[in-house]
Write a structure and sequence with these properties.
The complex is a heterodimer of chains A (182) and B (719). Chain A is an alpha+beta fold. In chain A, strands 1-2-4-3 form a four-stranded antiparallel beta sheet. Chain A is built from seven helices and four strands; from the N terminus they run H-H-H-H-H-H-E-E-H-E-E. Chain B is 52% helix and 15% strand. The termini of chain B are far apart. The chains are: A alpha+beta (182), B alpha+beta (719).
Chain lengths: 182, 719
């Protein structure tokens, strides 16, 4: 993953718990240093190790840690650094999610090691929406759950996740989020 | 209408902004986004090329014909009123059966981002092939990247400063601790040395010798620590400067010459002299390297020739040369198994016993580090019983034509008066003879020496050589300087030879007595070189003076045979012949003058100024030799003084206190020098003789002073 992800994780811990706690997380993770550069590609293990160390240090489940990170990613990192893109990608959560694949495709033309997830949005009746998440990576469904919550807040929409349904897939991860928009 | 609606649809698939412009320049049809932004439905007739201000193409003048001529160029247009901007191209629809033009393009994102608060654009306003959104993402991320790098740079800078501060503090601490340890340790060594003068026997002698050896070894280790601590700052301070390589080589040879002469070694230079250009480089480091290698060669050689070589090596350097330096000797050589460890600290290639007597062995470790810093690598070849050669190549860039050259000691001396002729130096104190003899030699004189008034007269009467000037110590056993002067001036042919007095006393009676004896001037002891030079200029015939500063080539002839009055007066000096005033005498006593009235305990134990002057005049190598001799000789004199005090031998007390005081002041041991002077003065008075108890505080003053002296010499050696 790119350094911008790891940086965001560090910022979340530092903002919420202070630099000292981050240093403990870093020490626990075994990652040698935290001089992450946004545009540099790092091994996925770095991000997984840091996330696990966060959870262990806070004495919470990894899924809770990833969920919190998903919210932080939208509310802080994306909102601060990519506000223009966020604005251009949609005026509400569903429009944004519909454009997200397009946005990821564009990013892929610049960041050659970029392996983005894929989202499919299917609007149903009664404000029910199905969001299908597919990724080459494992274990990031809680992170996406946090992302959805963060996006709803960003667009001032209410959203309730009714069901998170893991689906069988040969490689990677595939999850169906069933939500109801307010 | 265009021939094919299908073609219009395809254009809209490719571009979000498509506009059909008729032969009058009117926008007659537009894609939804362009129609919306141009308010096509409500704005009436829209002259498309007047609706926007076009930044590009630069040659475009807004007319339809100009637009047609600019086909294939990028159109960048904006409208402050609409808060919208476009980028794209103009294409000709003629082939599609339409008499007009068509604009195809996309929103100009960067203008909109930079000039509107909310452009209200969405991703669907841009075709998928358009890279502006990619650029937006890239720029946003790159901004983050720049901030990351700036933050990292600040962290690195801060960390670097922290490390430098810590390193500096560590060095200061090492230096301070080493210094603080060395000072009392010198007291211990001095006391142990004094103890050895007593008749010790059995276990007491054994323990005393053990303590002495251990203290000496400890001092070496402390010196090593101190030198190591000084090394980093020394390397850091060695800035690049322009210099004359020939001068540098001569300087290094000059500094090594005295010690090599003492050992009967021949010292010479190999390689072609006269480098055609001056060079730029870290002069201090190079000087240190050559000095250390020469010093080692002299130190470890008992006979033969030592050669310093410097020559250009074939190279492709466009703005400089590769210079190969070599220092070879015909000394004992280094065993093959010791070569590999030669550059490690404390290793000299000698047996432990020999090494112990020759120093810490830090020199080659420093040399290797300095050569590395100079961009070279040092190598060594040696054969036991035949000799050793050290070689290194370093790149040196050419100095600019107008570069100000760093002064080498050779170069400095070229700006000061040079003398010729023979000076007879008369002093009963051997160290004074050697030290002042070196100073006179460095000025260009041949020097004859005599250790008593009687020896001086005998030398002159032997007519072994013509004497042009005499420097006469006043206080000598046997024939005094006054009496010797009178008798010399009575010798035929010596009537006009200038005799200058050397004295540690500044009393008016000495001055009058010297004048009556026929002496021309009085110089204080320790002798200040500037005072000596001034006096020499005043009293020597001009034929024996060749000075860039005082004599131009045109002036030399006219001054032949005359005394160099102008030069002398320009230095504000006066001679006893010409002036009744005391200016010269007071000036000549300057080294002691400021502290003369102070009690010894109010004077600093050490005054570095005399050492700084001596280093400049005779060089660190000679000075260290003389300090060693002084320290060795002082032990005997100290014992004689102590015994004379116990036996109430007034004359011996005066003699030894005088000599010790004079020597101490020469080497900057201010407090001890004053104390000896006070003992001498007390013994010269007719009252009670000073007692041995008075020596006790002097022992401490000596110990502390010698510690500081040795610290300064170590520092000077590194410079």
């Amino acid at each position: 993953m790119y350094g911008v992800i790891n940086k965001s994780l560090r910022d979340m811990v530092v903002e919420q718990f202070g630099e000292g706690k981050w240093q403990e997380v870093l020490l626990r993770s075994g990652v040698p240093d935290d001089s992450f550069l946004a545009m540099q590609s790092y091994d996925d293990d770095v991000t997984y190790s840091l996330a696990q160390a966060c959870a262990d240090e806070m004495e919470i489940d990894l899924s809770d840690a990833l969920r919190a990170f998903g919210v932080h990613w939208v509310e802080n990192t994306v909102a601060r650094q990519y506000e223009s893109l966020l604005r251009a990608a949609g005026s509400d959560m569903l429009e944004f999610l519909s454009n997200l694949n397009n946005l990821h495709d564009r990013i892929s033309s610049t960041f050659l090691n970029y392996r983005p997830p894929n989202f499919k949005v299917k609007e149903g009746e009664g404000n029910h929406v199905e969001i299908l998440y597919l990724s080459e990576r494992l274990g990031l469904t809680p992170f996406v759950e946090g992302l959805l919550q963060g996006l709803a807040q960003r667009f001032n929409q209410s959203m309730e996740i009714l069901e998170i349904e893991p689906q069988v897939v040969d490689e990677g991860e595939k999850t169906l989020f069933k939500v109801r928009m307010g | 209408m265009i021939k094919s609606d299908q073609f219009w649809d395809e254009l809209q698939n490719l571009f979000t902004l498509v506009g059909q412009i008729d032969r009058e320049g009117v926008l007659v049809r537009a894609s939804p986004l362009l129609a919306q932004k141009c308010q096509l439905d409500s704005a009436g007739t829209i002259q498309f090329f007047e609706h926007f201000k076009f930044k590009r193409p630069t040659a475009f003048n807004g007319s339809l014909s100009s637009a047609r001529e600019s086909k294939g160029e990028l159109f960048l247009g904006f409208s402050d009123v609409l808060g919208f901007a476009i980028r794209g191209q103009v294409i000709d629809y003629t082939e599609m059966g339409l008499d007009g033009l068509c604009f195809v393009g996309v929103p100009w994102l960067w203008w909109i981002e930079g000039n509107t608060v909310d452009g209200t654009l969405t991703m669907s306003d841009f075709p998928v092939h358009d890279v502006q959104m990619d650029q937006l993402f890239f720029m946003s991320t790159q901004q983050s990247m720049v901030e990351d790098l700036q933050a990292l740079n600040a962290q690195l800078k801060s960390a670097k400063q922290d490390v430098e501060r810590a390193n500096e503090a560590r060095q200061k601490y090492f230096h301070h601790v080493s210094h603080e340890m060395r000072t009392p340790l010198n007291g211990v060594i001095s006391a142990l040395s004094l103890m050895s003068d007593f008749k010790l026997d059995g276990k007491l002698l054994e323990y005393s010798q053990l303590a002495s050896k251990s203290a000496d070894r400890l001092l070496e280790v402390i010196n090593f620590t101190l030198e190591t601590a000084s090394l980093e700052s020394h390397m850091k301070e060695a800035e690049i400067s322009a210099f004359c390589l020939d001068d540098l080589i001569e300087e290094c040879l000059m500094l090594a010459r005295s010690r090599s002469l003492e050992k009967g070694l021949e010292l010479r230079r190999s390689g072609k002299r006269g480098f055609s250009k001056n060079y730029m480089g870290r002069l201090k480091l190079l000087r240190q390297v050559l000095g250390n290698l020469l010093s080692n060669a002299v130190k470890f050689s008992q006979s033969g020739t030592i050669t310093l070589g410097a020559s250009k090596v074939e190279s492709n350097l466009p703005q400089g040369d590769i210079i190969e330096f070599s220092v070879s000797d015909q000394g004992p050589g280094i065993p093959a198994d010791a070569i590999d460890k030669l550059f490690e600290p404390f290793t000299t290639g000698l047996s432990l016993e020999t090494q112990h007597s020759q120093g810490t062995g830090l020199g080659l470790s420093i040399v290797e580090r300095f050569v590395d810093a100079l961009g070279g690598t040092i190598s060594v070849e040696s054969s036991v019983g035949e000799g050793t050669i050290f070689c290194f190549n370093i790149p040196l860039s050419f100095a600019p034509e107008n570069a100000v050259l760093e002064s080498t000691r050779v170069a400095v001396r070229e700006d000061t008066p040079k003398f010729s002729g023979t000076v007879l130096l008369v002093d009963d104190h051997k160290i004074n003879l050697q030290l002042n003899g070196k100073v006179l030699e460095s000025m260009g004189f041949d020097v004859a020496i005599a250790d008593s008034g009687e020896a001086a007269i005998a030398h002159i009467e032997s007519k072994a050589e013509a004497v042009d000037l005499i420097l006469m110590d006043l206080d000598m056993p046997g024939l005094s300087g006054f009496d010797a002067t009178q008798r010399i001036l009575e010798i035929s042919g010596m009537e006009d030879v200038p005799i200058l007095a050397l004295t540690a006393h500044n009393g008016g009676s000495d001055r009058r007595q010297a004048e009556q004896a026929g002496m021309r001037e009085m110089l204080g002891k320790p002798m200040l070189v500037e005072d000596l030079r001034t006096a020499l200029l005043a009293h020597l015939p001009a034929t024996l003076v060749a000075s860039k500063a005082c004599l131009g080539s045109e002036a030399t002839d006219s001054l032949k045979g005359d005394r160099v009055e102008d030069c002398a007066s320009s230095t504000d000096a006066g001679s006893m012949d010409e002036k009744e005033g005391h200016s010269m005498i007071e000036k000549s006593q300057a080294p002691a003058g400021s502290d003369d009235n102070k009690a010894p305990e109010d004077v600093h134990v050490f005054d570095r100024k005399p050492i700084d002057r001596l280093v400049l005049e005779v060089g660190i190598v000679v000075l260290e030799t003389l300090v060693d001799k002084f320290l060795g000789e002082s032990t005997d004199r100290w014992e004689r003084l102590r015994k004379a005090m116990a036996d109430e031998e007034r004359n011996i007390i005066i003699r030894e206190a005088h000599t010790l005081g004079s020597a101490c002041l020469t080497f900057g041991l201010a407090a001890a020098g004053r104390s000896f002077r006070r003992i001498e003065a007390s013994a010269l008075a007719d009252g009670m003789l000073p007692t041995a108890e008075q020596l006790s505080p002097i022992s401490e003053q000596l110990g502390l002073g010698i510690g500081e002296l040795q610290t300064l010499l170590s520092e000077q050696r590194l410079q």
